[in-house]
Amino acid sequence: SVKHPVGDQLPRYVRVNTLKTTVEDVVDYLKRDGFSYLGKASRLEDLSLKDRYFLSDLHLPELLVFSPKTDFHDHFLYKAGHIVLQDKASCLPAHLLSPPPGSHIIDACAAPGNKTSQLAAIMKNKGRLFAFDLDGKRLATMSTLLLRAGVTCQQLANQDFLKVDPDNPQYKDVEYILLDPSCSGSGMVCLQDNTSADQEKEQARLASLASFQLRCLNHALRFPSLKRLVYSTCSIHKQENEEVVAACLQQNPGFRLVPLLAEWPERGLEPLPQCLRASTAKTLTHGFFVALLEKHSEPGNTKQ
Ligand code: SAM
Fold it and tell me: Which of 4, 101, 172, 176, by CA, is between 20 and 30 Å from 52?
């Protein structure tokens, strides 16, 4: 089989938390700490770094790129919440949703909260960020992470998103939703060695995940003021990605796909090239999928 970079050979990505600092200050700090800054990357190949060299990413302005084995877990900047250790692909959903400061947002399946903290940074902590998760333990981890990151606009709830009432007046101004539901995780390269798993069991698991993902997506589209929704998974399976989105669009003709980042090197599989995919081979990240849905604005086109 073809060998692509595996987990410990991928670049290490660091997202600068603009709630606490700036890219400039982090770059200066790291230079003083013995790292060598090479400026902004201009091609994907630039991201393959050695030793203590680092770069600014070519697609995401708040992202710094380091060599594969760089470890920041014990670093001051990480402990102080100035940087977040987040794979490049998983920075795409919040970046593409790009909710303006002051907006009301739902993060439907939010824990452990890296995307929630990124949303809060994009909103400059202004507005309301309703974040749900079914798993109490993961939500507790998330509280710690958000505290460290200086997030203050959140309202966390240990709740099944499918049971959140879209007509509750609390959510009447929610215009943006980030939906990053449980998935097979097949894009996480460290989990990719289960090729010998029982095929039938695996198919049943994927079908059940896809049905859950579609229910979440359909539910999210029922929030009355919704304008834009980003759907993402860390799965490489079409069944959890393009097929879920295509089924949802068919059931919700009031929504359409927004074509994403023309300069991104990997597209959604046919028939959804508007969406993005990510992979070790083509984007030097974990495997990932992102779709952005938008409500039609023309009157007469919004009937359900
Ligand atoms: N967005 C998160 C981040 O960036 O840190 C990762 C989310 S993870 C892929 C999916 C999450 O969905 C898990 O934490 C899981 O507990 C939660 N979940 C699963 N079913 C749910 C449901 N019905 N309602 C709310 N959360 C759910």
Answer: 4
* pLDDT tens sequence across 47-85: 999 999 999 999 999 999 999 999 999 999 999 999 999
What are the counts of helices (DSSP H) followed by strands (DSSP E) for the chain? 8, 13
Q: Which amino acid is at 165?
A: D
**Residues contacting residue 181 through CB under 8 Å, at least 6 positions apart:** 108, 109, 212, 213, 216, 233
Q: Hey, whose CA ends up nearest to atom 25 of ligand 1?
A: 133
Q: Identify which of 163, 204, 183 has the alpha carbon closest to the alpha carbon of residue 287.
A: 183
Cα–Cα distance for residue pair 176/129, rounded to 1 Å = 10
Contact 111 CB / ligand 1 (< 6 Å): yes
ipTM value: 0.99
Distance CA 285, CA 289 (A): 11
Tell whether ligand 1 has an atom less than 6 A from the beta carbon of residue 85: no
